[in-house]
Design a protein that fits this description.
With 67 residues, this protein is an alpha+beta fold. The protein has two helices and two strands, in the order H-E-H-E. Strands 1-2 form a two-stranded parallel sheet. Helix 2 links the parallel strand 1 and strand 2. The longest helix has 10 residues. The protein is globular.
């Protein structure tokens, strides 16, 4: 692949390969630099600074955070 997060090119490559729309994609990471890289690629990003990823969803698995 030769491209890695937090570089924008890495996110661009994954978006293209997986046919993802950046505006409809959410990237969650505990490293702020990686989240910022995703945002540079137009992806919604959430920095998980504490807690569990499960805390971001309600009982019906609906996202509770604003991106």
């Amino acid at each position: 692949m030769h491209e890695r997060k937090p570089e924008k090119a890495g996110f661009d490559m994954i978006l293209k390969e997986q046919h993802l729309n950046p505006e409809e994609t959410l990237f969650i990471d505990d490293i702020l630099a990686n989240v910022e890289g995703a945002r540079k690629a137009g992806v919604k990003g959430h920095h998980l600074s504490e807690g569990s990823i499960l805390d971001l969803f309600d009982e019906g698995f609906n996202l509770k955070i604003d991106q």
